[in-house]
Amino acid sequence: MANKALISMDELLLSSPDIFIPEPGTVVDGIVITVQKNKILVDLGGVSTGIISGKEAVDSSDTIDSLVTGDVVSAFVLEPENDEGLIVLSLRKASQQKTWKRFLDYYSNKEVIKVKITEANKGGLLVEVDSIKGFIPVSQLAPLHYPRVNGADSAKILARLQKLIGQMIDVRIINIDEENRKLILSEKEAQNEVRLKALKTIEIGRIVDGKISGVVNFGIFVTFEGLEGLVHISEIAWGHVDDPSNFGKLGDPVKVKVIGIEGEKISLSMKQLTVDPWLEIASNFKEGQKVSGKINRITEYGAFVTLADDINGLIHVSEINDPEIKDKGITFKVGDDVSATIINIDVDNHRIGLSILGKKPAKDAPITSITELGLSDKVMLALEKAGIKSIDDLKGKDAVALTEIEGVNDSAAKKILAKLA
């Protein structure tokens, strides 16, 4: 038998000009001839054979695992001919093209899709599908995944984000970089319709079940029904709250009451789901009554004494600085047990004034301290943030000036002016 010389693809084309040879960069369909561990041979129209091997046989759908002889498969043409005269094909590239087209369709139709988080950095989360990279900026994360930390600590932010690696989340594509095949994704946008719908149904006074999405110095953030609200530190418990983290941690289930809605800003309360202990104060404490308790906090305006669960009394600084006290060498520190006389009870603003000098209740004594104005902790905190720490700081201020202070409403301003009149 005579030896047959090998014919190159170019020679074959010259002898048979009607034969179709796939061009690099196109996607072709062929019939699987054989499937090996990491190599697939494909019949291309009965006139040429393609080969898919190595990393080019691996795609995001693991197509090679399900292929059998006779199956039709789509592949991307990499080279028209290798050293063996085979057309070099790629499942990986074909899958990338299909995936990119799907992403373009998702973007055009504003569809919500699921993606798996593969990496995290301080700026956000990364995903990758068929070598197509997507990025979810921190600002585009939904409330439950938004890394709320005190002081914008970058190390804590990254630690929070790293916990999301491996999770599947819903996102919407908000921008596409076609040249570099990169996507900008948003989890927040994916939940936007649910959030807007929920906003229309939420009502003040409603009690909802939620999940803690953040704990910061000034309160606790809670997500529920696609929304997020804040339990301000003053609404966590009836008593003084030093550290909100003592009342829950990230991910904990929690029941809260909606107490305010301003646009998309929702105010919540935990303490209003329990009975206000101050409602029974009149039957338990009276002006002139002798009481005992333990000092739990010392501030620049006095020492707070625990009289009962969530009930504190204040020994004003004027008492502590009184010559009679100083002459006796009496000092105070947190944890000390003290005996005192109740000289004032303000149930509305949750305040009890105490005296360790055995003074009688003061009825018409002039106001000498801000603490004697009977203001709520929230208003007191607002005044302190505005730099108002003494009665002198309030002199000359009218209702307009007071209500310009964030946290001081008309009612509080009127009360301050009435007390100082």
Which SSEs are present, and which pair or pack?
Blueprint: H1 9-15, E1 27-35, E2 39-44, E3 48-53, E4 72-79, E5 87-90, H2 91-109, E6 112-116, E7 119-121, E8 124-129, E9 132-137, H3 154-162, E10 168-177, E11 182-186, H4 187-190, H5 192-201, E12 207-216, E13 219-224, E14 227-232, E15 253-262, E16 265-269, H6 281-284, E17 290-299, E18 302-308, E19 311-316, H7 317-320, H8 323-327, E20 337-346, E21 351-355, H9 377-385, H10 391-394, H11 399-403, H12 410-420
Parallel strand pairs: 3-5, 9-11, 14-16, 19-21
Antiparallel strand pairs: 1-2, 1-4, 2-3, 4-5, 6-10, 7-8, 8-9, 10-11, 12-13, 12-15, 13-14, 15-16, 17-18, 17-20, 18-19, 20-21
How would you describe what is shown here?
The chain is of the alpha+beta class. The protein folds into five domains: 27-95, Nucleic acid-binding proteins (OB fold (Dihydrolipoamide Acetyltransferase, E2P), Beta Barrel); 110-190, OB fold (Dihydrolipoamide Acetyltransferase, E2P) (Beta Barrel); 204-273, OB fold (Dihydrolipoamide Acetyltransferase, E2P), CATH 2.40.50.140; 279-361, OB fold (Dihydrolipoamide Acetyltransferase, E2P) (Beta Barrel); 379-421. Helices cover 22% and strands 34% of the residues. It contains twelve helices and 21 strands. The chain has helices at residues 9-15, 91-109, 154-162, 187-190, 192-201, 281-284, 317-320, 323-327, 377-385, 391-394, 399-403, 410-420, and strands spanning 27-35, 39-44, 48-53, 72-79, 87-90, 112-116, 119-121, 124-129, 132-137, 168-177, 182-186, 207-216, 219-224, 227-232, 253-262, 265-269, 290-299, 302-308, 311-316, 337-346, 351-355. The strands form four sheets. It has a six-stranded mixed β-sheet with strand order 6-10-11-9-8-7. A five-stranded mixed barrel has the order 1-2-3-5-4. Strands 12-13-14-16-15 form a five-stranded mixed beta barrel. The protein is rod-shaped. It starts with 8 loop residues before the first helix and ends with a helix. Mean pLDDT is 84; it is low at 1-7.
